[in-house]
Design brief:
There is one protein chain. With 198 residues, the protein is of the alpha+beta class. It folds into two domains: 3-78, Pleckstrin-homology domain (PH domain)/Phosphotyrosine-binding domain (PTB) (PH-domain like); 84-196. It has five helices and twelve strands. The chain has helices spanning 67-78, 84-88, 105-110, 132-142, 165-174, and strands spanning 3-11, 14-22, 26-31, 35-38, 42-48, 51-56, 59-64, 95-99, 122-128, 151-156, 177-184, 189-196. The strands form two sheets. It has a seven-stranded antiparallel β-sheet with strand order 4-3-2-1-7-6-5. It has a five-stranded mixed β-sheet with strand order 8-9-10-12-11. Strand 1 and strand 2 form a beta hairpin. The longest helix has 12 residues, at 67-78. The relative contact order is 0.11.
């Protein structure tokens, strides 16, 4: 979701200035009051004038966001989370040419209705890579698609990854691609979307 606001927060009997971050799965408070609330645990949410009010367990929370921002945050909080397929822009009308082995269950599920059976069905590519050779091969295969097609590069994340985000970015930029979006795939994998630099 990626929304951020500076506001006054009232948490039970405490109050203070915070920076509130509305992320995909959490609402995070930093500043005078520090908390992380799982969005799935938020109940009794409502907009009251300029305030967004809700409960998490026994805690009562009020964010003084202003009427317009409070309404927008309430809509985002109430909306069902986007699926991985939606985040990647993959589906029956936007099939992906899959390059590499898809072993991650979340990614496999996202591709159920979005995997191209033939190259000419593909609108974009999705490559699972674990080293520079796999990435080079993925780019060769991707080049068979129309020139405007984007490619998602899926790689292991975290400090234990031997071929992660910075290595992928360095190679992709060197090959004339620019990154335009990042998405978590699962606890183990992330993906970055690239397109040809214009």
């Amino acid at each position: 979701m990626g929304l951020e606001a500076r506001c006054t927060c009232r948490l039970n009997d405490d109050a203070g200035e915070v920076r509130a971050f509305l992320e995909t799965r959490e609402l995070i408070l930093r500043g005078a009051l520090k908390r992380k609330f799982a969005i799935a645990s938020i109940t009794q949410m409502r907009v009251d004038g300029a305030d967004l009010r809700f409960r998490v367990g026994k805690e009562k929370v009020t964010l003084e966001l202003g009427a317009v921002v409070a309404e927008r945050w309430a809509e985002k909080l109430a909306a069902p989370p986007r699926t991985l397929a939606q985040k990647l822009g993959i589906g029956p009308s936007a099939k992906a040419l899959v390059i590499g082995a898809v072993e991650d269950p979340a990614l496999r599920d996202a591709l159920v209705d979005g995997k191209a059976a033939r190259d000419n069905e593909a609108k974009l590519s999705l490559a699972v890579v674990n080293d520079a050779a796999a990435l080079d091969y993925a780019l060769q295969v991707h080049e068979t698609l129309p020139s405007g097609a984007t490619i998602w590069i899926v790689y292991r994340k975290g400090s234990g990854s031997v071929f992660g985000e910075s290595a992928v970015r360095r190679i992709m930029r060197g090959a004339g691609y620019i990154d335009s979006k990042v998405s978590a795939v699962s606890d183990a994998f992330s993906a970055t979307r690239y397109g040809r630099r214009k």
